[in-house]
Design brief:
By secondary structure, the protein is mainly α. Helix content is 55%, strand content 4%. A three-stranded mixed sheet has the order 1-3-2. α3 crosses α4. The C terminus is likely disordered.
Length: 249
Amino acid sequence: MPPVPNAIDEKLERRLGEDRLGRDVVEECRVQLMLKFRFLDLALWRMALVPMRAGAAYPLATDGTRVVLDPPRVIARFQESDVESVRDYLHLVMHCIFRHPFAKDHDCLEAWNLACDMVVESAVMDMCGERFKSDDDAARREVLSEVRMLVGALLPNKVYGLLRDIVRTPDGQHYRGLGRSALNEWHALFERDEHAAWPANNTGAPQDTERDQTWENVSEDDVSPDEMLDALRTDAPSEGDAASGGQDE
């Protein structure tokens, strides 16, 4: 039996190796996205990467200032599909650009979290077109078309209102033809990241205005995501001035 300290050192070295590889995966996602969306370069590198094995539902999470990544799961996700890894990271960043993690005026968290995921995936699919296309995008578009028929424009509060009423409908009953089975299907289709660390989901925590202001492209809940993306594109650096991004400490 080898000495215990050696076994501990080997385990620690494996974990550190996973941490480095997990960071490398996210960095690769950042680079791929920057090559496609130059106007997002600052947003893609704005948050530091923090490896953490927290047992969350998804490989990535954010509190608005950090990207928390579960190294083994980030690595496995990338090995399964590099495109899905890229989409996961873009999804997380778009939440922050739209300031979803900081919107606290919603009393039904399930509905608000799902509404944010649906709005983000709609914007991401429109941005990406055939690039970074996911196998489930056709199903997502079908659901979003159905939701548009019910609420009109895909604005966060409009989608939230519909989802809140479905969530509050008693089991076995339906609201406008939709019930718990539809919600479960939509969760599976649109969720990509963990929201537990969002300030909006920690109602007992004090408001961190500095963290909120980190994301300068401010919107109210009902500002069109398309308008926000147009503003980002307007502020994008010229081709000669575009930076490749910063380095994490």
